[in-house]
Amino acid sequence: MLEIKNVSKSYGTKTALSKVDLCLPRGEIVGLFGENGAGKTTLMKCILGFLRYQGEITLDGEPITRKNIARLSFATSEHSFFPGLTPRAHKEFYELHFPTFRQKRFNGLMDFFELPMNKALRHFSTGQKNQFEVILAMSQGADYILMDEPFAGNDVFNREDFYKVLLGILDPTETLLLSTHLLEEVEKFIGRAVLIRSGQLVGDVSMAELEESGKGLLGYVKETYRYKADRVSKALDDLTEQE
């Protein structure tokens, strides 16, 4: 169980997270949704220990330290690999440092994305780099896989196929926390939706509950955020009047 208790984070006078409480059991696929700047990336970086914060984050009751950090992996469009190395060299590095490294999964995903094994990462396209970032996170052998906008630069067909592959290869005990703006694409893929706004947790619902209520994910998000459907027409009216 990954537990986040009363976690807050500020950058100077700006509050990025405010008293966030969240529990992530093993074996869930959770979507983390929110506007730009809502706090999604900050929350993930706090979980990983990249940022200092107030509050408590534990993994099976223990603080996250160098002793258990390998149970967490991270895929980000900021990229965390070595650009001068090849995928083959990364594979050898991960095999050396992570005893639970999933070699078969790594090879299979490399084949699926049709990525070259002996080409330096700096020569990959943006989409290929993001694909490789996901492959590393999926193959590390972690119990909790955190992904922050991992599909940037990938076309819709690649993304759709990858969702299907991901569902097929995840073990029942692996947990995936996925931050993305592609709500409608992941609606059938996730089992739970967590909403964050202005650094606060404003929604947490299972997809089964949404289905029973007859609501779709997008509708739930709009309702929770109190989205104003007429905001575009009002803005256009104001802009037209100004002319």
Write the layout of secondary structure elements.
Blueprint (H helix, E strand, L loop, with lengths): L1 E10 L2 E11 L4 E5 L6 H8 L6 E6 L2 E2 L8 E5 L10 H11 L5 H11 L12 H14 L4 E5 L7 H14 L5 E5 L3 H4 L5 E6 L2 E7 H7 L3 H8 L6 H12 L1
Parallel strand pairs: 3-8, 3-9, 6-7, 7-8
Antiparallel strand pairs: 1-2, 1-4, 4-5, 9-10
Please describe what this structure looks like:
The radius of gyration is 19 Å and the shape is globular. Helix 3 (103-113) packs antiparallel against helix 4 (126-139). The chain has a single domain, classed as Rossmann fold, CATH 3.40.50. The model has no long low-confidence stretch (mean pLDDT 89). The chain is 37% helix and 26% strand. It is built from nine helices and ten strands. The longest helix is centred in the middle third of the chain and has 14 residues, at 126-139. By secondary structure, it is an alpha/beta fold. The strands form two sheets. The protein has a six-stranded mixed beta sheet with strand order 6-7-8-3-9-10, sandwiched between helices. It has a four-stranded antiparallel beta sheet with strand order 2-1-4-5, with helices on one face. The chain has helices spanning 40-47, 87-97, 103-113, 126-139, 156-169, 183-186, 207-213, 217-224, 231-242, and strands at residues 2-11, 14-24, 29-33, 54-59, 62-63, 72-76, 144-148, 175-179, 192-197, 200-206. Strand 7 (144-148), helix 5 and strand 8 form a beta-alpha-beta unit.
